[in-house]
Every structure is written in structure tokens, then in C-alpha cells.
Amino acid sequence: MNSRHHVPSDPAFSEAWRLFRELHDAPSLERAEKLVLWLGRDARHVRALDDALTLWALAGAVMVGSAPGDEPCQKPTLQ
User: Fold this and answer.
1) Rounded mean pLDDT, 17-42
2) What pLDDT does residue 41 have?
3) How many CA atoms lie within 13 A of 29 on its CB side?
4) Domain-located, residue 76
5) Quick one: DSSP state of residue 74?
6) Looking at the predicted structure, is the pLDDT value of residue 66 above 70?
7) Cβ atoms of 46 and 53 closer than 8 Å
8) What is the Cα–Cα distance from 42 to 44, expressed in whole angstroms?
9) Domains held by the chain: number
């Protein structure tokens, strides 16, 4: 079990989330450099970005996957 717990009011997480979304929504060298510089300032920033990326990945997995026990939208066809 993961022992790290994200606190929604954590300023480092909020900034990591903001920087990631900016870079994701409008990629640019300037935004990438801002993120890299911010990451280099404090080891907690790296952990905060890791938490933000984990949240992003989990949210994407939820959107793609279905709940256990749900029937598939289409029945398999014989080929």
C-alpha cells in the first residue's frame, strides 16, 4: 500500500498540477523549462509532480475502463 498521502491544499501539489496542465494543454519549450526549473528547486516538487501525474493517469484509466461487472457495449463477433 502506498504510504504517501496527497493533501489537496498542498501548495507543491497545486503548483505541480498547474504546471503540468499548462504544459499538457499548450506544449512549449518555455513551459517545459519552467517545470524543470521548478522541479530543481526542491525534492518535494518532484514528489508533488509524481502525485499529479499519478492522478492524471488514474483519471484516464477510469475514463477508458469500465466498472467490474459491467457488460461490454458490444458482444464479441465470430470471425
Assistant:
1) 98
2) 98
3) 0
4) no
5) S
6) no
7) no
8) 5
9) 1
